[in-house]
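Appendix C. Worked example: Peptide deformylase
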Amino acid sequence: MSVQPILCYPHPVLKKVSHAVEAIDDEILGLIDDLLDTMGAGPGSVGVAAPQIGVTLRVCVVDVSASRHGKENNHGLLVMVNPEIINREGAAIMREGCMSVPDYTGDVERATGITVRFQDGEGATREINATGFEAVAIQHEMDHLDGILFLDRIVSLKTGLFRRKNYR
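Step 2, the predicted output written as structure tokens:
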């Protein structure tokens, strides 16, 4: 389909809880295409969620395979419809950024390993175990589906929020 504009904080749609997808139809397939195109066009983007392009449906895409942080440990391109985390393990603090918050990065604590269940773009139910950077990216995108930004999870507003020097 096409690259969509990214909504930026404090746009109110970014704080809304998304609705479950009832059926994977042509509308949802078009949304998935838009998410993929938008992720591909984003500077260093490893994921994008439907609310970031103004759609409050539980759909997101993640692909960390081209990132230096995730290229050694990933499941490739993940199209996730109605994802849910069914298990979390470990915890670590990592620096995160977001296309919807282009001027800042921040230190966020996330699970280091997750099991996530979702429907893929063809409607098949999948369950994967993700670790490391891929697990962080999935959690980040799933937060968007619940109206949560990484800013809401900063470990310390005094020492954990950083102005981005450049964004490209």
